[in-house]
Design goal:
With 168 residues, this protein is mostly helical. Among the domains are: 59 residues, no CATH class; 53 residues. It is 63% helix and 0% strand. The chain is built from 5 helices and no strands. Helix 2 runs antiparallel to helix 3, helix 2 crosses helix 4 and helix 3 runs antiparallel to helix 4. The longest helix has 47 residues. The model has no long low-confidence stretch (mean pLDDT 77).
Length: 168
């Protein structure tokens, strides 16, 4: 595209402008519009992810949906506004990318460990109650078995005498 320059800028100034522009791009220099575009997109992506990962109750001044719209529709101003006025204040706890887990924010050697069944008092108490019920059930069965055996012996003791009495 040919630039239309006033007569006084034609000549050396115009040639110098065109030459310097061509040399900056041809010598590997990055055009400024590309740098600003990359910075703006990086800010947009960072602020959008940060906003989406923040807890709804911690976000300041606008609801989360409002901040997302502002960041997306007005990327540069919305991102800066998010960083200054909307981002949750840091409360001293470490932010991690998996805040829903029990172990988030702890180094591995300090993480709270879930209790195994052998260490859980409620589990052990339930096991004791279950064992006591089973022991009682076994005692009842043994008593019933002894009672049946005793009754059978009594019948056998009566039966042979009755058979002898009937035969004689």
């Amino acid at each position: 595209m040919r630039r239309i320059l006033p007569k006084r800028l034609r000549g050396h100034a115009a040639l110098g402008y065109r030459a310097s522009r061509r040399t900056a791009e041809s010598q590997g220099g990055t055009p400024m519009w590309l740098v600003s575009f990359v910075v703006e997109m990086a800010l947009l992506v960072y602020c959008l992810i940060d906003c989406l990962q923040s807890n709804e109750g911690d976000i300041r001044n606008l609801p989360k949906g409002g901040w997302v719209l502002l960041i997306v529709l007005v990327p540069l101003a919305g991102g800066v506004a998010w960083l200054v006025a909307g981002r949750p204040l840091q409360t001293g706890t470490r932010r991690v990318s998996w805040p829903a887990t029990q172990t988030s924010g702890f180094p591995e050697y300090e993480r709270p460990r879930p209790l195994g069944p052998d260490d859980d008092p409620a589990f052990l108490a339930e096991q004791r109650r279950s064992d006591e019920r089973h022991e009682q059930m076994l005692r009842d069965w043994e008593d019933q078995l002894r009672d049946r055996e005793r009754r059978l012996r009594e019948r056998e003791d009566r039966s042979p005498h009755q058979a002898d009495d009937e035969g004689h």
